[in-house]
User: Fold these one by one.
Assistant:
Number 1:
Amino acid sequence: MDRRIRVLVGKPGLDGHDRGAKVVAAALRDAGMEVIYTGLHQTPEMIVEAAVQEDVDVVALSVLSGAHLTVFPRVRALLEERGAGHKLLTGGGIIPDEDIEMLKQKGVGRLFGPGTNTSDIVEYIREWARTHAHSEG
Amino acid sequence: MDPLVERVLQGEKSALARVISRIENREPQAVALLDELFLHQKAAPRIGVTGPPGAGKSTLVTGLIRILREQGHRVGVVAVDPTSPFSGGAVLGDRVRMNEVALDPGVFIRSMATRGSLGGLASTSREVCEALDAFGSDRILLETVGVGQSELDVAQAADSTVVVVVPESGDSVQALKAGLMEIADIFVVNKADREGADRMVHDLESALSLKNWKDRWKPPVLKTVASRGEGIREVNEALERHAAWQLETGQLSHRRRESVGARILELTREAVTRAVLAKAGRPELEARVDAVLKGVESPYRAAERWAAELLDTANAPSP
Amino acid sequence: MATPRKTMELPESSPSGAELDEKLQALKKALEAYDQAVARNAGTHRHVSYDTISGAPNKLLYTPLDTAGMDYARDLGMPGEYPFTRGIHPSLYRHKLWTMRQFSGFGSARDTNQRFKFLLGRGQTGLSVAFDNPTIMGYDSDDPKCIGEVGVTGVAIDSLADMETLFDGIAQDQVSTSMTINGPAAIIFAFYLACAEKRGIHFDKLRGTLQNDILKEYIAQKTWCFPPHPSMRIIADVMTFATRSVPKWNTISISGYHIREAGATAAQELAFTLADGFAYVDAGIQAGLSVDDFAPRLSFFWNSHLDFFEEIGKFRAARRIWARVLRDKYGAKKRESLLMRFHTQTAGVSLMAQEPENNIVRTAFEAMAAVLGGTQSLHTNSMDETLALPSEKAVQIALRTQQVLAYETGVANTIDPLAGSYYVEATTNRLEREAEEYFREIERRGGVIKAIEEGFFQREIARSAWQYQQEVERKERIIVGVNEFVTESKIDIPLLKIDPSVEPEQLASLKKLRETRDNGAVKQSLARLTEAARGTDNVMEKILDCARVYATEGEIRGAMREVYGDYRETAEF
């Protein structure tokens, strides 16, 4: 057996600020995970299709465009639709606390703001994988 | 039938994705799954795409996908990127270039990390191709890591191998020419709008002209500007010609025979090594290491002796 | 690329004794003794990084030995004189303070028009337009890719009609307008020009700046429309058009800001940005323009980060390099061609979400570095920008920071007051040297566009960003309130909320426009643009024709896309 945690890192929407997404991708790689980097300008449909085909455990999105209230719920809904509701949907960006709370209630995992230590993200994903990964068929 | 296999055969992408993970992770059920899937393969042509980093492999693959889709084919893609030897992790970034075909229902793209394999493919990439085949992909594209080494494993896994270079790769191609000549069925000089493209084409052609191609397939040298979709159609036509030639001359069955033979040997070697270590265990190996280090015998002799002992045991009539 | 002056390398190497006069010899001895004494106590030094924020090593002490190879007249000169290290104007801020230009734009054209009128009413003479993401990418608001982003981080502009609303009641010949737009810069410029034309204002009365720096988009900011080669052709066409018809317009604002924000070091920001600048000069010359016709209309846009002295050195080095290369390599004769005029924005990336009030302090230091570096205009970030678009209160504090700097601190009284500091001069020289090394590397790779296509810049930047992040996580770098002196405090500053009705309203007015305009004329003008894109006619003129008949931004982009295709980046880590 040679299992690795697979994480999709993507940037939905039109903004091009990919520094955070790239730093997080590098951190997850250095923590031994396989990161599928989908790049910029992703629609929710593209993200979910890639998540399904790549059989990732985690979908991590970086949103700095202010469109988080549109993007996260849409990705969540599409994941459910594709029978991939068991995947962790997490991410980060410039997201006000009250919006984080609202998204949490819609089934989105932790959202990390500026200044986050990447080791916190690594730990969060590892812990989640330990308790959830492959609990389904 | 395994319900997962049934779902794959019905064309369910998430089931295929899960099967691929099981293969890639070498999970215990993988052999049984592959066994069942094997019966549903249609021997779809497999096209390998290799070449140095930055040559535009992913862009060329994307261009090929578009043309194959126009022709009504269902396309499966395996894109391989290297695993970090330090952390065991990887960043798989080939999808970035393939975004425009990512939502096409007739396309399935899977990124794989090499996970310790030293060639251009992951050690289970071929099995993943088999799963794609059973799923119904009738053209399968294999994009290698492109470490710049001659990636013999892709030539073995694919029916046709496309080697992509760019005008600037002059020196490295010079050094690798021998290796590339061995594996290429088609040469592509990509980014051909750049300076030096014609010289590169000329260099490759003159190197090819030194060989005797009588009764053999002589690799054509084609120019593309993959980012603008120029020349891709010609690459696809060359692939079709190569496939037809292989069929006509019987080369295809010969190549596949060789390839399956090599694969069986490889898997057997892996299985035997696993079995030996499982049965005899580490101490048995350590004892032989001690003998070599003490100068009692050479490693070659030690291996010969161990193999002979194992075969004797295997040949002995069962009680 | 111009070869670096050998003398600039002197301070770095240890000069041989024969070349030094007696005083320096004595100093060298004293310094050796000092170094030994310090080395004995090194065990007591604090365990943090003493490198600059860019990772360049700092010595504990700088002395005349570090500037020994310098020549005042050759390397510094008088302000307003070659090589302009000390500034581009002889009397700098006594003649005119820097322009306090705060960037703004949100919601609909009508909302932003109101904000502009408010700012103009308070004596501001320059406007700076922030566009929303769909506009920046060249998409119409009703494109499905734009869901949730219309009017969110800037103003939504789809056609000339929106531009007319944006500048309703504002005399375009009385204000200078800066527009932060790159991929579709030619299209937005055309809307602005067509708007002035309809009001009977001649193009030669228009003043302003178009960012129009596409190279840094591929390198860092990642909002492009077309691949590099056609993009450069469009830029050359804009330069040619503006040189002839809109002579007071700054056609490109060559931007290091976004390169730095993406994670570049100070040296990378300096080198990559200047290299971009040289690429535009090459493009202008190739288009048949004389360098002195367009170089005076090129300006720069830098980041001002937290490492105070390194930033000042960066601004000074940039002026010196630009002047030298324009004079020696491109043979520029006009004084104005040699002047590296620049706008500065404080570093957005240095703002922290934790205890956002601390950002006021960070921004103030960064602003001071920009002023000491001789900036022509300045934008100070608001403390809440890591949380949302800035609130009115936060914007006011940011502006007040500049005013305190200008009127209370006294830093604007004397030009280039840090010149002659061993450390600042050595830092200026060091950055110049590092930039020269990068120029050679870029040249070796076949120029800026090839280096972009190979992912060279992107890789260098991603690595710098990752290195910095690791230093922060190992606590070799302390960020107050983030990885040290952390408190569990709730954020209690008011945040700006964007009105969610902007998107549907914008979609409705766009729909109406498509129904009421002369669609035959639109179709015809778009077809002529496609033809020009395929051939060699100036596309800017054809884009202007499309704008005049109310073709939308997305349609105009589409007409060129037919010929130019899309750009796909490589993922570099």
Number 2:
Amino acid sequence: MARLTDGAASVGLVEPRLAHYGQPITLQCKATLPCFDLVYETYGELNAARSNAVLICHALSGDHHAAGYHSVDDAKPGWWENCIGPGKPIDTAKFFVVALNNLGGCNGSTGPLSLNPATGEPWGESFPAVTVKDWVMTQAMLADTLGIDRFAAVIGGSLGGMQALQWAIDYPRRLAHAVVIAAAPKLSAQNIAFNEIARQAIQADPDFLGGRYFEAATKPRKGLMLARMVGHVTYLSDDGMGVKFGRELKSGDLRSAQDVQFQVESYLHYQGTAFSERFDANTYLLMTRALDYFDPALECGGDLVKAFSNVAARFLVLSFTSDWRFAPERSDEIVDALIAARKDVVSATIEARNGHDSFLLPNERYFDVLGGYLDSVAQREASA
Amino acid sequence: MRRDLQIIAALINPGARVLDLGCGDGALLRHLADRKGVNGYGIEKGAAEISACVRAGVNVIEHDLDLGLGRFPDDSFDMVVMAETLQAVAEPARLIDEMLRIGEECIVTFPNFGHWRCRLQLATKGRMPVARHLPHQWYDTPNIHLCTFRDFERLANTKGLPIIERFVVDGAHAVQRYINRFPNLFGTVAFYRLGRAEPAYGLGPGQPALATASGA
């Protein structure tokens, strides 16, 4: 069972690359993008048969930098370093791993911060609405660029898991396996409500300026911070927060109480501030909208079983016991629909106390199941 | 493959839609997929067992049978199998109803508490039997609903469930002639293939298969 990756090897220094697409594409919202860039990273080697490629789809605030370091001075590695690398569950000794920043992102791929060629100005709030379906379409274009006809697996957690699900529906012949972690077939009203609170926090910030904040060389920091704080609370669990922070006082003494009193407040402030510096507000609005609109069953009259009818990929569906934002029951909806559609599926509910965030954290059983599944994927691909 | 799983496999038609409750390491489903083109699913709650299924490429769903089978719609399977698990679930009678709601037929196997060794231990020592096929002490046993073959058939009879087939075997899962004369006394494990409560089905309801076992 030993799959924890403490001290395990890293993919080391990595370099982002840019793929440029000069042809216009029509998005699901009917808007046309005249051209766009996707920034991506790859780890490991593509085999001669081009059959060992794995696509990593990122969640709300993720990007293409999933593993390794950009320079020897980097304080932090990529966001899924504990899971991607030689000997890790997503084993770069076996797989050629592709990670990208989704269209509409703010870390190098075309998004609201990019210039609109029609106006010469940044797109800002006028960047067209993108959907999970659009992301999957542009990811397939990236696969074409890389000469990957079929992924051994498309893997993602949370919003990333929704992309893996959409892949299996939209491109049934272009992936052998879909790994859907801590996701749902669509958001609940409660989930949409949390996203709307986050959006309102951003839009109500005086520095939002109707989404044209960049023209005033400012950004809605307070709003982004608040949005992230709300998000963070929903990504953790009561129990997990209790263990991590308890009621510890930052100052250690109520008499010297200042703005920040409890450790948990300090933590949220730090996370919120860091996020507001690195993330673009318009991208956050766009990504949460994509999350809200995701509902692949809608095209089939709300019938998820029917939506899965053409699926050819095998599924691994994972959830975490303390995740209340994307609860195990939501993963079960995916699993049950796959069974009803007579598709291959493996599901496990991982005992974990860190809420939705659990999908980003090392956990012995989580890595055992994920690594074990991907081992069997690698073996199948090798013997195919 | 385990001898008892071979017996079960022989009862399953090629291409059947199979659900295996308490599928363990997935050996039965692997065998059925390889030999009979069966696209099956296993239900399991043990982490080690699930891990084994994952590595074997078996469709395994983590689920606790004590939560029932409400997540599966009516008529989703041709055959629902439960090997050596009936005695360990919270509500065996309801689970059998559920199995026959979601499946056309079911196969249930369980250890016999009416085996002569069990009877002898209880009679002579006055203690809960511990045998090779029932190795646990009363306080740490997962087997919370032990029964005899006769008990089970009475339940099937009460529910009007036809027993389509029955195999009774010894501790090595071998069929012996002497067992079939007094199955509830000499049988260690029984395999029951049950159908839904409908008339004109198999032996039909109201005909307990043990009627010939002369009171044993």
